[in-house]
Structure formats: structure tokens, C-alpha cells
Amino acid sequence: MYSGGPQVCHHCKQPGHFVRDCQLRQVPNVVALLGGNGGAPAQDNDGLLSTPNAIVPYRPPAANGGQNKGSRHNSNHGTNQGNKGYNNQGYDNGYNQGYSNNYGRTGYQQRPRNNWWTDNREREKNERFDKVWGWFSEEMENKDKERRAKEEKLEEEEEKRKVQAAEEERAKAKKERKEFERSLERMVKDNMKEVCQEVLGKKASTSRVSTAGCVMEARRDETRSDEGKRKEQDDRWRREDSAAREQLEKQRMEEMERLRKDNDDLIRMASQLWQSQ
Predict the structure, then answer these.
(1) Integer Cα distance of 189 and 181 in angstroms
(2) Cα 265 from Cα 259, distance rounded (Å)
(3) Which of 23, 69, 144, 275 could form a disulfide with 56, with the two C-beta atoms 3.0–4.6 Å apart?
(4) CB 96 within 8 A of CB 80
(5) How is the chain split into domains, by residue range?
(6) Residue 15 — φ and ψ, nearest 5°?
(7) Nearest to 21 by CA among 53, 66, 65, 86
(8) Of 166, 171, 181, nearest to 226 (Cα)?
(9) In Å, how far are 39, 44, 57, 207 from 36, measured between CA atoms?
């Protein structure tokens, strides 16, 4: 096509359209076929060259000054409505009625988007949230079970230790008491021997009174000694119980601090997993 001249197709040499809109692009030697009638093709009533040997009959452009600057949609629209001898009888009945109704006549009509994509997106987000929340809840439940199990185990061990310590103290006190009684008995016997030896020349009554006084004094000494040992033992148990309570409280605080750190780590891991998905 030359600027300033008529619009002529470079393939079929026919005016009124461009090469891209030519209906005879697939036909080789179309110029020879169109001009095969003695090399002097005749003109029709509109002043255009006739195409008696064309596979697809040529239809002149619409009354727009010969300017066919529309898109392929306009070309297809004109062709589908104009070529009644070829399209309307065969191919257009099955294909153009089903396909060109959307593309040839009214242009491309985008299928209206429904809410499937949005619903699917929301469902995926909910599933991911449920998955992360389920994992987080399970981890928290497991951590809570472990914490309760450790606390119960520590309490059981503490109770066992207290019971064992009390039994050991009672056994030790019983053993000390027996040893004290034996030592006191030996001391009383020795004192009695000495007293008896000293008062051999005195009356029997005086000897009995002295012996009774020695026995009573020995019993008072034993009672005072027992009370002192009992107080000492009570003080020792009290100190041990206080130390044990302090140790248990310290372990409990350490365990709570560790569980708090584990909880913070789980929350941070869940947040990172949620952000990555």
C-alpha cells in the first residue's frame, strides 16, 4: 500500500482491504487466478475487479470511504454476515452460531467471575489458621501435661523424702534413747555400788533412803536430758523443713520460668509458621 493512493492488498492486488484482512491469504498465485480471464480482469458495477475463480467470494467494504481500519472483530463480523453463500449454509451453522456469537458479533465477553475464587481463598486461609491453631493447642496441651507430671513427680518425691527423713529421725532418736537408758542404768548401778560400799556400816534404813534419793536424782537427770534432746531434735527438724520448703519453692519458680520461656518460644514459632504460609 502506498501513502496517498487507494488501499490495495499486496497479496491479491484487490483494493479495499489490507493483507492482514485478506480472505485469500492461503491461496497461492491468487493474482494469476483473479486475472486469468485473458489477463484483463473485468470490473464490476462498483468499479472493483471481479473474482470469478476465488475460493471465497469477495465482498466490497462497507460504505465508509473504502477505509477498513477496524479490528479483526469488525472483519469477522462483516464476513460472517456477508458470506451467506459459504458460511451460512455449512460452517457458520455449527461453528459461527456457537463460537462467533461471543467473538464475531458482540466481541469477547469475559466470563463473569463468581465468588468461587474468593471462597476458596478464604477456605484455604481458614484451613491454614485451623492447622496452626491445632498444632499450637496440641503443643500447649502437651507442655501443660508435662508440667503437671513434673510437679506431681516433685511433690511425690518431696513427700517420700519427708517420710523417709522422719522415719530416719525417729529411728535415730529411738536408738539414742536406748543407748541413753543403758548408759543411765550402768551409771545408776555404779553409783549404787559406791553408795553401798560407803554406807556398809550404817543402818539399812539410811541405806534405803540414800539409794532412793540417788534413783530419783538419776531419773530427774534423765528427764532433763530427754527434754533437751527432744528440743534439739525439734529444732533440727524445723530447720530441715524450712530448708526443704525453700528448695521446693526455688525449684517451682525455676520450673515456672522455664515453662514461660517454652510458651514464648511456641508462640514465636506459631507466628513464624503462620507468616510463612
Answers:
(1) 12
(2) 10
(3) 23
(4) yes
(5) 19-105, 120-276
(6) -80, 165
(7) 66
(8) 181
(9) 5, 16, 16, 174
Ramachandran angles phi, psi of 165, nearest 5°: -65, -40
Q: Which three cell numbers stand for residue 62?
A: 462497507
pLDDT 10s digits, 158-208: 888 888 888 888 888 888 888 888 887 888 777 777 776 666 655 445 545
Phi, psi of 208 (to 5 degrees): -65, -40
Measured CA distances, 5 to 46, 47, 67 (Å): 18, 16, 12
Predicted structure pTM score: 0.26
DSSP for 234-266 reads HHHHHHHHHHHHHHHHHHHHHHHHHHHHHHHHH
Averaged pLDDT score across all residues of the chain: 68
- Amino acid letter at 35? G
* pLDDT at residue 99 in the model: 42
Full DSSP string of 121-162: HHHHHHHHHHHHHHHHHHHHHHHHHHHHHHHHHHHHHHHHHH
Q: How confident is the model at residue 58 (pLDDT cuts 50, 70, 90)?
A: low
Nearest to 227 by CA among 275, 265, 180, 168: 180
Instruction: State the Cα–Cα distance between residues 49 and 16, nearest whole angstrom.
Output: 11
Side-chain-facing half-sphere of 199: CA atoms under 13 Å:
16
Closest CA to 66 of 18, 24, 7, 21: 7
Angstrom distance (rounded) from CA 176 to CA 178: 5
Q: How far is Cα 15 from Cα 65, in angstroms, rounded to an integer?
A: 12
